[in-house]
## 1
Amino acid sequence: MSIERTGNQSAPAADDPSAEQAEEQWELRLYTAGQTPKSILAFNNLKRICEEHMPGRYQIEVVDLMRNPRLAKEDQIVAIPTLVRKLPQPLRKIIGDLSDTERTLVGLQLRSRGK
Amino acid sequence: MTGFMNDLPAVSRAASVEADNAAARSLPKCPTGIGGLDEITFGGLPRGRPTLVCGSAGCGKTLLAMEFLVRGVTEFGEPGVYVTFEETEEELAQNVRSLGFDVDVLVQQGRLAFDYVHIDRREIEETGEYDLEGLFVRLAVAVESVGAKRVVLDTIEALFGGFSNMALLRSELRRLFRWLKDRNLTVVITGERGDGTLTRQGLEEYVSDCVILLDHRVDEQISTRRLRVVKYRGTSHGTNEYPFLIDARGISVLPITSLGLDHHVSNERVGTGIARLDVMLGGGGFYRGSSILVSGTAGSGKSTLAAHFAEATCRRGERCLYLAFEESRDQIVRNMRSVGIDLRRCLDDGHLRIEASRPSLYGVELHLAQIQRLVAQSAPSAVVIDPISNLANTLDASAMLLRLMDFLKTSGITAIFTNLTAGGAALEATDVGVSSLIDTWIVLRDIEAGGERNRGLYVIKSRGMQHSNQIREFVITPQGVQLLDVYAGPEGVLTGSLRASQEARERVAAFAREQEQQRRQRELESRRAVLDAQIHALQQEARTLDEEMGAQARQYALATDTMEQDRKAAAQRRGGKETT
């Protein structure tokens, strides 16, 4: 799995429920180390969540540390898989295979804690 | 032929068993280059294995780990990787720069690599299963980038603060240590000390090869750092607590108790600087490399005696280290000049080094470590410690002083310790209790009599030489110390002006005796002269008598002859026949 871009640059739908977030572009980066079941699961979970909550406004970059090991230090990655929300600001880090959708949404600040 | 072929594997098997045994006896070790630590561990940390360095905050864990890496690079040609979880690389580099480690240069040379692993729980949301492969990747990158042989993880416990899945963390840690061992990396892991346990997170359960405990204690406002090797699997090691210090050149551990009693002794004598004292010590002075204690009450001249020795040492062209705990350097120089000891010249020509510090400045251990370092720096043949009583006042000093004396003895350094004896206490009772280690013990005491104090000096003991048992009066003159005979007569031991007046009285008496004697001599001489005259007169008389006696005999003979001739003549005249 090399750096792989998946995305959809289409304009947001006019009937989007969150008009505030509607303008925002999402730039996400998923760090993995080889094609492990955990990272594949994480990627699939991430794609599903993005399609549900920000269709057409997101961009996922998958960074395989096995191929680009130096990025681990540069981007302060310890746990694998790690999802980094680069945009919108501020930067957020979510670790794990993203199978806990509720916590992933909290982590991405799509949903406030305890809701 | 077949027999030979069969024998061969058996022989090589025996050889390999032998080699295995040897390996088991002495584990391969990785020298740290930290002064003293390699001595305690008999060679260093276990090579290719992790060592846990634990201790409370501020006890020097990070520094020890850093010095292990830096010395590995600079002294043993082994590149290293420092993984820090708490401080950034810049902070770390800055912290150790003050200790003389320029890590930036080593990083630029590609011999040292840093990785700051930042973990902040507030930034992390856990959403399912994960592992710490990222950490492994980073470690692998860093190790490969410099070809590291040594790794520091400081402190890996931060992981426990960053992640909530303890079961996962523990299995990942186990995997990490396996990973490090597989790569034959010598690793130092630091850990914060926990309540009743070595580390808060029980890291010791993963690191079973070697555990070093650092301690930072404060007793009576004086802090001392101590190091102990708690365990070291498969090898012997010093088990005591060793004091260590951190100064401008890093850590140095003081493994003095590891010294034995097998030091070389010298038969050479070194002069004390006081000729009469040399005579008292059997002629020649102290043995080179012996320990000398000079004890006495305040103002009894201990420092002067020590300064004499220091000056004499320098005059011989040897180096002397003077450690002053009461006076400053200039004060010592001035005071000694007033009694005719020129230390300034010794200082100027570089033979003498005076280091003055307050005993309460730091703990006894630190003092000792400092002394050890000074000795290593200036390689003196004599050391003066003036006084040890002040050091002793600070803490449980006697054990430490024993170590110091041992250290100086083993180094073959002649050492003079002065010791202030509390007024009223028995002079022989040094409160420091080190007398058993002392080779020569000189006591200066005040002798109070006739409204003045005078100083007396005597040698309590001096091993291996015929020393005087006499008390000598110790007089400090502007030309230095002089030892005088005390007056020991029917009126007791007299010193000072009492001795002087007694001597004056004796001089008067002696003069009178002389006069009397001369008078008697003259009297006898005149009597002798009278006798001589008498003898002369009698002899004269005798000679006169002799002459008279001779004259009379001649007269008598003449008369007899005459009478005979007269008779014969008369007979002839009467006929003469009858008679022919």
## 2
Amino acid sequence: MTTTSIVTQAPSKKMRPRLSFISGIGLTGQISFWVIIAVALIAAVGPYIVPADPNAVDLEYAYYPPSQWFWLGTDASGRDIFSRLIVGSRTALLGPLAVVAMATVLGTVLGLVAVWFGGWVDALIVRVIDAIFAFPGILVAILATALFGAGLPAATIALSIAYTPYIARIVRSAALRERNLPYISALQVQGRHGFAISARHILPNVSGLIVANATLCFGLALIDLAALSFIGFGVQPPTADWGAMVGGGMSGILQGEPLEAIAASVLIVITVAAVNTLGDRLVQRSESRA
Amino acid sequence: MTDTSSTRAIATRKVSRTASLAPTGAFLARRVGGLLGTMFVASFVVFGALYLAPGSPLSFLTQGRSVTPEAIAQLEAQYHLDQPFFMQYLIWLGGVFKGDLGSSIIFGDSVSNLLSQRIGNTALLLLVAAVLVLLVGLAVGLFAGLKPGVFSESVMVAATAAMAVPGFVAAVVLMLVFAVQLGWFPSYGMGDGGFDSIWHLTLPAVALAITSIAFVARLTQNAIRSEMRADHVQTAISRGLPYRFIVQRHVIRNAAMPVLTAAGLTVAGLIAGSVIIEQIFQLGGLGQFLIDSVQKKDFPVVQAICLIYVATFIVLNTLIDIAYTLLDPRVSLGKKAS
């Protein structure tokens, strides 16, 4: 067999120059990366240094205009909008992060198992993935709300299940290409266990694509969770959340006080735009390196 | 969320299509078989959800409301709670095929009756949004792809930005600007039919369609650009063939199928987004009724609407997939596709 000579040529991690996470994604990708880091920093330390108590209700100061005390004014209950935006960045980021983490782990395992075993295992997993794929994320989350009541945990778990097929499909098709390369059969001939080959050789080679698509899923999950909080099925009051603030600002819009809804909307759009751009660039990068 | 998902759907679809190794009849049979299989699993999930809920199905359905013994007897009869689980599912599925979706706990009326009053509003909203996506998305993408320049580039930057705008944010902003401040459009309701309804649906449809328009525009532009760069097009240009002829004959024809497929999948994806939009603009369709029923804990209605949405989504996806495979002469059923 010629496998040994092929193994020496097989793509190895050490042959590639060491590249940082943000190299090769262009200027827009890097700007997006730093925007995300900034939002994450705000979410991490912001709640400790906000100028006002985000949940302090004072009806005398309802719809108070922007001023030195309330930088972005107050909402219908007289709560400081600026402070609530800062505190709300936590749920806005942690929710999608949990969704993406669960969906990625589940989807990666499903994809790798399907590829490694093939045959009826693959067929079964593909069928299950197709069936879940037929349920849009929002619909699964609404169904979960009907079953378990409104709240972030039910919505997060429901969305993780709904997002698993995306990751699983990507992992499956990428791992399938990898599986048919000669170095895998070489490892098999050497008697390596299927689990070890999947985890230590296939997974690292498809990880770039997984990270890229997980990033795109993060943007989608942020939108879905914000939409759920917006209609009152996600984050529950009085907890501050961007989506819930857009929803709470609806009454303000009809009364000519749109600041709360606008400010929260702007933050959602900026964050999603940064995440999407970074995701797109990462996908491009992993495709060009493949 | 639908736009990126549909790109991925296409990406993975290609894999499954390469596996088809039989002529058209067998291909159709397998696609329809897959459709039925997915429908079966999906309906099972929607029905089985009742048993995922905490507590017994009966206590979940009544939700601590004070209900008369007759009402309880009726619920037991409706869900056949005295039967084993799988029999309950089969009886329920049989009822669904006959158009019997049970009866609402809140309204007492039959669910199919309640839904038939509202399904038209949802269908109209989806129709207007779909027309917007196809017309505007394809036109903008075509223009930007064929006439590169500062204007096209800025349109594409705007499209990229628009893809980051969630439907509900678009709805809120449109309502603020065009309904509250300018007063050009009504902010809620469906109007009295005909042109009035279209007028009432303008803002909701734009809000629902905006992400998909941006997605389709970007996709079209990319497809047109890459066809323009293709060797046979460059050759045709260098041979001095008329520009119109090259564009119509070589560029648009080659770019059309993948773009139309992706656009079709995007339109199918509008279904999920319409729930939120209907709620914001109080359109009185299925989506608003769904949210309403979740809040009122009217589970038979929730079940029925979820089933309708999922079934529509599956059928549309399968139809688009079949159409793509059968219409594109380059996708040979007998050979590996590209």
